[in-house]
């Protein structure tokens, strides 16, 4: 048992848990949070694959590591857009203009 | 059982506990706090997986910036959940969903434990070509040289996200100052923090970008720290963003991608192709791209955190 095993299992658990949250929560904010947990699990799968590719003096394969950084930033951009839409819907509901 | 194994197990259980809390918490605020804790502990897990670059990104973007965004949204939503009663799944459906999600997790876990040996790796290739980029950090080499196209598209995604966030502004507010109007706060502690921390934070942010060439760090991590410093001063009412109709602000947002594309096109004529660097100028061009990217990333992150305009100009 080493860090690849432990964090590999953690990644799998996060993907399952995040997906469950996305599918069962009715509140959009909770779905956004769960979707980010699911994303965290997917990034961790990449991280484990990168760690397995350690070699040539590096602690991990730099290519998947760089893609994880790209992924985290893109996930954040998508989250801000989702939150902006959510807050706008909440505003419209409060004004009672959407029904 | 070795000490590192204990640390890994403790980290994994903490991450899982924070994630469970995020999904199971009763109130939105509690779930957001769980999510921020999740991001922070996960960044320690990244260190254990040997990638400090990702750990810095996770701590800055995944926990810090996301935390500010989500806590702000929770405060604005108040008691509103926007959940329809008919959207609440019945217990039987929830159990079935839980079963299939667990099945997926088990299948994924089994797959990850049974990956083929030897593991495929581009590490030797990266090590062999790192000297050509004159960089010491292989992750920066991937981001700015070998997979520069991904990084360019990522920078463009940030621009698109800013356009998306602005486009949900009410018609009457279009062209106004983005975000809520920050009233001058009477809170002296916040004002003091917003005056003392930014000079230190700006130095740390610039250092993260500069050192990214040789050690963990880079444009995204440094840009996030710079953006956080500006947002802190904004929250204390010390600074105000320009109106979204301002041409200057729009140029700031697209400057990074434009410089990146221009240097990429230069490569089409002077080197092997689009986004290739002429061998004699590799390092200066990479630094130029990184500086422009950092600036635009910081501006875009500020605008994403601040949100769409709320009131007429």
UniProtKB/TrEMBL annotation, chain A:
The keyword Transmembrane applies. It is found in: Cell membrane. It is an enzyme of class 1 (oxidoreductase). It is a multi-pass membrane protein. Its EC number is 1.6.5.11. Its main location: membrane. Keywords: Cell membrane, Membrane, Oxidoreductase, Transmembrane, Transmembrane helix. The keyword Signal does not apply. The chain crosses the membrane at residues 6-23, 35-54, 66-87. It holds the Pfam family Oxidored_q2. GO terms for molecular function: oxidoreductase activity. Belongs to the CPA3 antiporters (TC 2.A.63) subunit C family. This is NADH-quinone oxidoreductase subunit K. It comes from Roseococcus pinisoli.
Automatic annotation (TrEMBL), chain B:
Keywords: Cell membrane, Membrane, Transmembrane, Transmembrane helix. It is found in: Cell membrane. The keyword 4Fe-4S does not apply. Its main location: membrane. It comes from the Bacteria. Belongs to the CPA3 antiporters (TC 2.A.63) subunit B family. This is DUF4040 domain-containing protein. It comes from Roseococcus pinisoli.
């Amino acid at each position: 048992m080493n860090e690849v095993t432990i964090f590999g299992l953690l990644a799998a658990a996060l993907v399952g848990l995040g997906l469950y949250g996305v599918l069962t929560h009715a509140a959009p904010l909770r779905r956004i949070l769960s979707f980010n947990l699911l994303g965290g699990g997917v990034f961790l799968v990449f991280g484990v694959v990168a760690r397995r590719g350690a070699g040539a003096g590096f602690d991990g394969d730099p290519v998947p590591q760089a893609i994880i950084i790209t992924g985290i930033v893109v996930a954040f951009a998508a989250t801000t857009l989702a939150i902006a839409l959510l807050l706008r819907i909440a505003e419209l509901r409060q004004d009672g203009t959407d029904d | 059982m070795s000490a590192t194994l204990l640390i890994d197990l403790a980290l994994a259980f903490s991450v899982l506990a924070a994630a469970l809390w995020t999904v199971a918490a009763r109130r939105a605020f509690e779930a957001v706090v769980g999510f921020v804790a999740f991001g922070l502990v996960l960044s320690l897990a990244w260190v254990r997986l040997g990638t400090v670059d990702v750990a810095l990104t996770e701590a800055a973007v995944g926990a810090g910036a996301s935390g500010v965004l989500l806590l702000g949204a929770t405060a604005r939503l108040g008691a509103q959940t926007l959940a329809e009663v008919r959207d609440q799944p019945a217990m039987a459906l929830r159990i079935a969903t839980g079963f299939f999600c667990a099945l997926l997790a088990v299948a994924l876990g089994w797959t990850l434990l049974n990956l083929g040996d030897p593991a495929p790796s581009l590490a030797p290739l990266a090590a062999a070509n790192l000297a050509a980029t004159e960089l010491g950090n292989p992750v920066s080499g991937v981001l700015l040289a070998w997979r520069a196209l991904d990084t360019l598209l990522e920078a463009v995604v940030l621009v698109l996200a800013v356009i998306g966030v602005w486009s949900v502004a009410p018609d009457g507010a279009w062209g106004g100052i983005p975000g809520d109007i920050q009233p001058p706060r009477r809170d002296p502690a916040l004002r003091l923090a917003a005056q003392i921390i930014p000079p230190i934070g700006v130095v740390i942010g610039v250092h993260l970008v500069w050192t990214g060439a040789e050690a963990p760090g880079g444009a995204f991590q440094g840009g996030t720290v710079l953006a956080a410093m500006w947002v802190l001063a904004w929250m204390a009412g010390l600074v105000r963003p320009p109106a979204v109709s301002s041409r200057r602000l729009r140029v700031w947002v697209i400057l990074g991608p434009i410089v990146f594309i221009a240097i990429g096109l230069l490569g089409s004529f002077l080197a092997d192709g689009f986004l290739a660097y002429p061998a004699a100028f590799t390092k200066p061009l990479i630094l130029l791209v990184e500086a422009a990217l950092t600036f635009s990333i910081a501006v875009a992150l500020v605008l994403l955190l601040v949100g769409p305009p709320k009131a007429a100009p």
